[in-house]
Predict the 3D structure of the following.
Amino acid sequence: MAVSLDGDALHIWPVSTARPGKFTPVGTFHPQSLRRMHYSSLYNNAPMPWSIFFYGNFAIHGTTAVELLGCPASAGCIRLAPENAEVLYGLVLQAGFADTWIIVQE
């Protein structure tokens, strides 16, 4: 994941996206909602700290499975190390939904 603010590169972080048989939506999105701590209603109450929902039930969020970052591992969400998810969450709060662009490419 590349994170920029006002055209300046701030961070490059490894992520996990959809494992085989699942999908991560591709396109350009704005955040729809933020949750400091969310528990998945679809996947056994899996913790999703620092959730930034951008397409229905799909979110960017922290994960406890940091050893899998850089590999396809999720059910479709974009997973980050929790400390990176917290930084991104704060940036979205500062910028606001309308000025935050989430661009997901294959």
User: Anything to note?
Assistant: The mean pLDDT is 96.
